[in-house]
Write a structure and sequence with these properties.
single chain, alpha+beta, 3 helices, 10 strands
Length: 170
């Protein structure tokens, strides 16, 4: 058995994905993960090729494109029409990218907003994250999907009127 498989088994045990778990989903997930780890280990990757393969697999497993989006017609599918019959297109290679009838394109996962929240008002501070219409960022082609969205503070208008910084309430 390879060192990678041993490592995976140990780490899965530590998070409760054990062979003898009473939770059927945990047993099944362990089996699937170990199957993929064994296949990867059997390929005999070196210190050079393993990170390359891991990066590509991580993107593919997350439905992320490996090459920039082109914006060409074959990348789009009409997913709806507005009340005037104008189409809304969705990109086939990255489901968070859309094109309006006027040709403007945007990524709905481009921006994530954050703010601190307390509930109850004297409770512990918790950093909350959310997206909404203003999370859209314009897209021009070729478009390389960023690894992470833009994180931006936004006061939601709630009852949390204390000054805030990235680290918490001031």
């Amino acid at each position: 058995m390879s060192e990678l498989v041993k490592h995976a088994e140990t780490e899965l045990d530590l998070i409760g994905l054990t062979e003898d778990s009473e939770d059927e989903m945990n047993v099944m997930m362990r089996k699937h993960i170990l199957h993929m780890v064994k296949e990867f280990a059997a390929e005999g990757h070196s210190g050079f090729s393993a990170p390359y393969a891991i990066d590509a697999l991580s993107k593919l497993f997350s439905y992320k494109p490996l090459a920039p989006l082109t914006g060409e017609d074959d990348e789009w599918t009409i997913v709806s029409e507005d009340e005037n019959g104008s189409p809304l297109w969705q990109n086939n290679r990255r489901s968070s990218v859309f094109k309006d009838a006027d040709g403007s394109c945007y990524d709905i996962d481009g921006k994530v907003f954050w703010e601190w929240w307390r509930n109850p008002p004297d409770g512990p501070a918790v950093k909350t994250y959310y997206t909404f219409f203003e999370s859209r960022v314009p897209v021009t082609f070729p478009y390389t999907v960023p690894d992470k969205p833009i994180y931006e503070y936004r006061f939601s208008g709630g009852m949390q009127d204390e000054a805030q910084t990235e680290e918490g309430f001031v």
